[in-house]
Design brief:
6 helices, binds coenzyme A, alpha+beta
């Protein structure tokens, strides 16, 4: 059996579609996967989540991708660029993955691919992320791609009835995207890269 590390990063992205709702629904019903996510996402079904992000995409407010293992079409998570301001060339990044796939480098690779798309296709100058304190896996995945921790907002989010701090991270266009360790570095053979 391949080691977990040996399979690192073997995922690609494709644009999210309505039929991904079912695959994402089971992730959204996993309280451990959603505990650090915004309240509206924690409350959403897969169908509601996909409908909302596709609506935002049609309005030009962002782009959403399904995370798919190479050679498979089945979504194991999503990564999206949202709060897109074409005038400032900035967008925010959010991502989550089905729990059984955690720890294999998939999150890091999905962030890397989405950032590459953001800089190359959306012409972003800056990508930012907000990570709630305690969500070490998310922070680490972003830092591995090259995001810098820029600050900590105190008590900015109400999480399970407690005011919780949030880390603010950012990555600028001119900063180097950290390469993946062994494994393919591609956007996959899908529609990603052709624009939306
Ligand atoms: C965040 C998330 C997508 C990371 O996905 P992943 O595929 O497990 O990430 P990776 O395998 O690429 O791991 C990234 C790094 O974080 C580390 N890491 C993962 N979980 C960790 C934890 N709980 N504590 C400390 N480090 C952790 C990994 O070891 C790895 O670092 P390393 O290569 O130096 O060992 C996944 O944990 C998830 O879906 N979480 C729930 C949703 C969420 O919080 N999304 C982010 C909102 S901002």
């Amino acid at each position: 059996m391949a080691s977990r590390r040996g399979r690192a990063g073997r995922v690609g992205l494709r644009l999210l579609v309505s039929s991904d709702a079912r695959a994402l629904n089971s992730i959204l019903h996993d309280g451990r996967a959603t505990r650090f996510l915004p309240a509206w996402v924690r409350r959403a079904t897969g169908r509601q989540f996909v409908a909302r992000v596709l609506r935002e995409q049609r309005r030009g407010e962002g782009v959403a991708f399904a995370i798919v293992p190479i050679g498979s079409g089945e979504a194991i998570g999503q990564v999206r660029l949202f709060h897109w301001s074409p005038a400032d060339r900035v967008a925010e990044l959010g991502f989550w993955i089905r729990r059984k796939h955690w720890g294999r480098g998939f999150g890091t690779q999905a962030v890397r691919l989405a950032c590459r798309y953001g800089f190359r296709v959306m012409s972003l100058h800056r990508i930012e992320a907000v990570v709630l304190a305690g969500n070490e896996g998310s922070k680490r995945a972003l830092e591995k791609v090259g995001f810098r921790t820029e600050g900590r907002s105190r008590g900015s989010h109400l999480l399970s009835g407690r005011w919780t701090d949030a880390w603010r991270l950012g990555l600028l266009r001119e900063e180097r995207l950290m390469p993946s360790r062994p494994g393919p570095r591609r956007l996959s053979r899908t529609r990603v890269g052709r624009g939306t």
